[in-house]
From TrEMBL:
Organism lineage: Bacteria, Pseudomonadati, Spirochaetota, Spirochaetia, Spirochaetales
Enzyme class: lyase
One Pfam family named in its UniProt record: DHQ_synthase
SUPFAM superfamilies reported in the protein's UniProt record: Dehydroquinate synthase-like
PANTHER family documented for this protein: 3-DEHYDROQUINATE SYNTHASE (PTHR43622)
Recorded GO MF terms: 3-dehydroquinate synthase activity; metal ion binding
Name used for this protein in its record: 3-dehydroquinate synthase
Superkingdom classification of source: Bacteria
Amino acid sequence: MTFEEKDIIYPPLHPGTDRTFIRFYDGELDLNSIFYAGEKDSLPQRIFVTDTSVAALPVMHSFIDFFRGEDFSHPKIEAGFTGKRGKDVLLILGAGETFKTIESVLAIVKAALDNNGQRSAVFVGIGGGVITDMTAFAASIFKRGAHCELVPTTLLSMVDAAVGGKTGCDFDSYKNMIGSFFPAQKIHICPSFIESLSEREYRSGMAELVKTALLYEPEFFERIEKNPEALNDRKGALIKEGIRICVNAKAKVVEQDLTEKNIRMQLNLGHTFGHALESMSGLGVVAHGDGVAWGMARAADLSQRLGLCTKEYAKRVKNFLASFGWETEPVHPAMKEKYASDEEIAKVLVNAMKKDKKNSSDRIRFILQENIGETVITEVPEEDILAVLK
Ligand SMILES: NC(=O)c1ccc[n+]([C@@H]2O[C@H](COP(=O)([O-])OP(=O)(O)OC[C@H]3O[C@@H](n4cnc5c(N)ncnc54)[C@H](O)[C@@H]3O)[C@@H](O)[C@H]2O)c1
């Protein structure tokens, strides 16, 4: 048998997605000055997307009022609201993971289409990871690829979701099953947004921050380990420094491996367990970061079981996570409420992990650690996984 081969070589996909500018702002964010400075006529059309909770924040009022029309005829902004400011559009979606659906993504696409959006339009997601993931996804599929800028407003989206170009939505009750790689051209990070987060959401973001410290920043980890309380000061210098450290660490990883062929997989520490928990407890029941924190405790136990790390290291990680109030026990309380036995819970979780898109075969792949900063990626037999889930 003979054959011929031919390569087709393409320039980088999507003009403008080869580079991301990240700006860190001090003080309160002024969206009007970010997006409406300069010559009006030279500005591209923007499709702004946010959710009802973010739209209700006082810091958003002066921006949103421009989209409500002269008569301010919408006393309360509800999900589905669309408003115009010149050629720009603002769409407000429902808040939270349950709205991370293909229908919401299509609503963004429709808002752009209904307003004569072109491929040159910039889709701007202002919100947590749900909004930034969906807005960037909509930008990536709109007319085969428009442009994207992000304003992350949760700690989680600042340190993780908005950075690195993973976009998408949930589908068929599984997390992030539909999506694309589509890096934003600009990310505007304003730490003061975290002051209004609920305790649950703040802690959720902290889990990703802790994850990044465990993976890449041993010195920072030791500092927060000595004084975890300091991270609770949302106006403090430590959390601002933590945000920068995490963004830079993630940027370094995604620069080398945008489409997660190798080292980017490390960023999924705690996620295989965490995503299974999020999916099987019912999307939205366990916050993403809380799932990741529990997943990091399970990964520590699994690392110990496989002889990768010492008992002391696994204990150190779990004690640290527990000091933030995160669940570290094998059976998560949210699962106990839903399933009859620990046995059933473990099986349900393993089945969900098998569907994880990160697996290369039937075997489930985990990110495990030998120590802080020493990470291994390995496939693990089912019996070992079951053993750390009950
Ligand atoms: N793309 C990636 O690389 C990546 C990485 C990690 C997580 N994610 C995704 O991110 C999502 C989770 O993100 P999240 O935790 O930001 O959730 P989220 O977007 O649902 O935000 C949580 C809640 O906080 C509200 N909120 C947002 N900003 C606020 C503020 N400043 N003050 C008060 N309330 C505010 C939101 O309206 C929402 O109700 C998940 O869907 C996850 O899959 C993506």
